[in-house]
Write a structure and sequence with these properties.
This protein is α/β, with parallel strands linked by helices. 44% of the residues lie in helices and 17% in strands. The strands form nine sheets. Strands 7, 8, 9, 10, 11, 12 and 13 form a seven-stranded mixed β-sheet that branches. Helix 10 packs antiparallel against helix 11, helix 19 packs antiparallel against helix 20 and helix 27 packs antiparallel against helix 29. The protein starts with 11 loop residues before the first helix and ends with a helix.
């Protein structure tokens, strides 16, 4: 027979270290395509192989795990596919730094040896995050763990590239891309971090050809004027229409460039004119294509000026800026300089300022793929939740540009394209050709570029299931059910998975996309090392336990709202875990000798006392709402309902109400209450398990009626119980009456040890009957000595009053409380409150503080002022009551 004793205190680490290996050992996470049950599939957003668990990962994977555990308990055939991304730039940087510390470089090793070294690093150090996800409780099917460069996924990547090329959807050409001069590679938009920097607007005069004036252009990058091929104005701007078609003289290089008209030009910015540098600005590049302008590249890939820069050739781009400004000033072409703060792109890895670069790259012709992906969401085949993100998705997809998929790295999927050294023909093939298909020559060299990391990630929902082979997993688990992701990769990853899934599988990759917000600090600031406000998930789990951390994230994960995290919030939910533990401990201590009854516990409601009938009704209700919320991705509401029910209804009310029964002599009544108590705790644990897996498993194992792991037990259903409106109504009357007495005791500072005389008046005879029928419970919970229940009449003297619904509650205080002393205490509290209010009000009256202090600091001060006012009003009201009692 199992022991039903729980330790006095809950030890999270000890419990977590016991149960996770147990779950893994018994194969509870493993999926089986031959097993019955409706498929429920999630593919994990693959973290970087170099990564460590951060708050975004913690939130994302907690929400996924909740869905997985919930559906597993519901009997679905569940698969959660884990894996990692090879993270081209990040991983190459890590290994390059390691080599530098050893006094060597990737160039010294050569490509093959360097790639081998990266694989060695990956096997030795990569993937720390997998163990950290296990620490979080993630119940992935680790037997199916994938890596974007494993053999199977590499084959899928190659197959997709070749097919798209054969279909004319992949091509090679010149385009403007993001370029990192330090990493010497193209970057996706997601790999560019925009930071606000203090800079300047430089107003430069471009002399008109003919010497009859000039046009002044404002720019933040004067060094790029060496690549200018036009000056543009808006065709609707009357200031400049007469100049369209003329030429200006490019400063320094003194070549003629045309003045053109284009709607893109913002008439309000700068002077209303725009220098066009097609090779170094993406918007200028598009304007140049519309006007058939040449692209002159004056900055090389390493960030240095090239031959097109004339006298500045060989200079670093920022040195060139200083030197060219000095020359413009000397030649009276620098009209003025203004401070200007704007967002500038930086490489997400090395933080180097990104250079828009005209470069020959590989691209996917994206429009034909995007059209299908737009239609899939418009028709509801894939839902995006919250739905507000659909508009953003449509806007981006309808204005999508061709996707640059090549990267100038050594670590990654090398593009399967081969160049003939004899006839320069290009061959794209699944396997390296031995001879050139054009001339038959044998001198073929493979493309040195690798594919963008997002290319392999775009195939993730089907490549991880075995595509291009028709595997049992692919047949059973595709399309996946839901993708849980952050909004910042909606376009870069989600949209690309949609396009690839529809193109290669003829079906959407997922039925739902649930987009969660960012985790911020308590003030709503984005977490960053520079701000010093980063909260480490591993430290949180060490301090408070994984369950408290997971519940905090869940409770704060409201749809469309950022998660504001603080140590105080986590500490609060840590107390909730302890509350549950103590309630379970009390329950188990009172189940000695208990034998689970046969049949449905709801079958004979007339045999239950009010407390038991009420809690059974409430258990059924909360089961219904929690299931509804989980199905609708309202994680915060599910957590909120559970918190309210467990802490306040189950612990604060029910456990107190049943103590007289549990400790009483009526063994039949005790057995009935034991059955209800055990059932309620069983349901609570199963409802909570998806959010708090560890503590629920530990308690579950002690329950007399539990069998096996809680993971494999059925999730409660509303059908298990039924609402009892009568019991809930009667209980509501009792709760209101008891709460009114407790409020009086608290406000009047009545010591807990003193019992009070209570009078309750109600017009409704049914309410009076309820109060009289349960006066024993009322006196026990309100610490009352006597209770009178009467119709409304003359108010008793020397009593403080409270109203609860249709009941007037009076508590006699004369002889129990020193009213003079209580009045003095309240006056002192009011005086103290006045002083605190004065400090806050003075601060808010200071216009300098309101104007200059951070918005969150001002908001906090205003909140304090409101709080102090409310507290003062309550103190004044209590003082008035005491004075009134003194006069009676």
């Amino acid at each position: 027979m199992k022991s039903n004793n729980l330790d006095k205190a809950y030890s999270p680490r000890e419990v977590e270290e016991r149960w996770y290996p147990y779950w893994e050992k018994h194969g509870f996470f493993r999926a089986d395509p031959d097993r019955s049950g409706r498929p429920y599939t999630i593919v994990i957003p693959p973290p970087n192989v170099t990564g460590n668990l951060h708050m975004g990962h913690a939130l994302n994977n907690t929400l996924q795990d909740i869905l997985i555990r919930y559906h597993r308990m519901k009997g679905w055939n569940v698969l959660w596919v884990p894996g990692m991304d090879h993270a081209g730039i990040a991983t190459q940087n890590v290994v390059e730094r390691q080599l530098a510390a050893e006094g060597t470089s990737r160039e010294d090793l050569g490509r093959d040896k360097f790639v081998a070294r990266v694989w060695q690093w990956k096997e030795q150090y990569g993937g720390n995050i997998i163990n950290q996800l296990k620490r979080l409780g993630a119940s992935c099917d680790w037997s199916r763990q994938r890596f974007t460069m494993d053999q199977g996924l590499s084959a899928a990547v190659k197959e997709v590239f070749v097919r798209l090329h054969e279909q004319g959807l992949i091509y090679r050409g010149h385009y403007i891309i993001n370029w990192c001069p330090r990493c010497l590679t193209a970057l996706s938009d997601l790999e560019v971090e925009h930071e606000d920097v203090d800079s300047h607007l430089y107003y430069i005069r471009y002399l008109l050809d003919g010497g009859d004036g000039h046009l002044t252009v404002a720019t933040t990058r004067p060094e790029t004027l060496l690549g200018d091929t036009a000056v543009a104005v808006n065709p609707r701007d009357p200031r400049f229409t007469r100049f369209v078609g003329r030429s200006v003289i490019l400063p320094v290089l003194r070549r003629k460039i045309p003045v053109i008209a284009d709607e893109y030009v913002d008439m309000e910015f700068g002077t209303g004119t725009l220098k066009i540098t097609p090779a170094h600005d993406p918007n200028d590049f598009e304007i140049a294509r519309r006007h058939d302008l040449p692209a002159v590249k004056c900055i090389d890939d390493d960030g240095r000026m090239n031959a097109e820069a004339g006298p500045y050739q060989g200079q670093d781009r920022f040195d060139c800026r200083r030197n060219i400004l000095a020359r413009l000033k000397k030649e009276d072409l620098l009209e003025k300089t203004e401070p200007y703060r704007h967002a500038v792109g930086h490489c997400y890895r090395c933080k180097t300022m990104v250079e828009p670069n005209y470069s020959k790259q590989w691209f996917i012709r994206i429009k034909p793929l995007a059209e299908k992906a737009v239609l899939a969401v418009a028709e509801g085949r894939t839902r995006i939740l919250p739905q507000t993100w659909e508009k953003t998705y449509f806007e981006w997809m309808n204005n999508i540009r061709d996707w640059c998929i090549s990267r100038q790295l050594w670590w990654g999927h090398r593009i399967p394209a081969y160049y003939c050294q004899d006839c320069q023909a290009l061959a794209v093939a699944r396997e390296a050709p031995r001879t050139c298909p054009a001339c038959g020559g044998g001198r073929l060299e493979q493309e040195t570029d690798v594919l963008d990391t997002w290319f392999s990630s775009a195939l993730w929902p089907f490549s991880t299931l075995g595509w291009p082979a028709e595997t049992p997993d692919l047949k059973k688990y595709y399309p996946t059910t839901v993708l849980v992701t952050a909004f910042d990769i909606l376009f870069f990853w989600v949209a690309r998975m949609m396009m690839m899934g529809l193109h290669f599988m003829n079906d959407v990759p997922f039925r739902d996309v649930y987009i969660h917000a960012l985790v911020r600090d308590a003030e709503g600031q984005k977490m960053s090392k520079s701000k010093g406000n980063v909260i480490d998930p591993l430290e949180v789990m060490d301090t408070h336990g994984t369950d408290a951390f997971r519940f905090t994230l869940t409770a704060l994960a409201a749809q469309g709202r950022d998660v504001r995290l603080s140590d105080e919030r986590i500490e609060g939910y840590s107390k909730f875990v302890n509350k549950l533990w103590n309630a379970a401990r009390f329950t188990l201590m009172n189940l000695d000798g208990y034998v689970p009854p046969a049949g449905n516990i709801y079958a004979a409601p007339e045999g239950h006392g009010l407390a038991d009938a009420w809690i059974l009704s409430r258990v059924a209700a909360v089961t219904d709402t929690v299931e509804t919320y989980l199905r609708g991705y309202h994680f915060d509401k599910a957590a909120g309902d559970l918190y309210q029910f467990i802490w306040h209804e189950f612990c604060d009310w029910y456990l107190e109400l049943i103590k007289p029964v549990l400790y009483g002599a009526d063994q039949a009544a005790r057995a009935r209450t034991q059955a209800v108590l055990a059932h309620a705790l069983s349901v609570i644990l199963r409802l909570l398990h998806p959010i708090m897996p560890f503590v629920t498993e530990e308690i579950w194992q002690k329950l007399p009626l539990a069998r096996g792991s809680i993971m494999t037990s059925p999730f409660p259903t509303p059908a298990e119980g039924r609402p009892d409106t009568d019991a809930e109504n009667r209980m509501s009357v009792l709760q209101g009456a008891v709460t009114a007495v407790r409020n009086v005791r608290g406000e009047m500072n009545v010591p807990p040890s003193l019992q009070v005389d209570v009078i309750m008046m109600a017009e409704d005879a049914e309410i009076r009957r309820i109060l009289l029928d349960h006066q024993g419970l009322i006196l026990t919970l309100a610490r009352g000595k006597s209770l009178q229940v009467t119709p409304p009449g003359e108010k008793p003297k020397g009593a403080a009053a409270q109203v609860s619904g249709r009941i007037e509650v009076f508590v006699r205080l004369k002889g129990l409380v020193d009213l003079e002393e209580e009045a003095r205490r309240l006056r002192k509290e009011i005086e103290k409150m006045d002083k605190e209010m004065a400090v806050v009000e003075k601060k808010l009256a200071n216009q300098g503080f309101v104007a200059k202090a951070p918005a969150e600091v001002v908001a906090k001060a205003k909140e304090k002022a409101v709080e102090f006012n409310l507290r003062r009003e309550k103190l004044v009201l209590n003082l008035a009551r005491v004075e009134e009692l003194k006069d009676q």
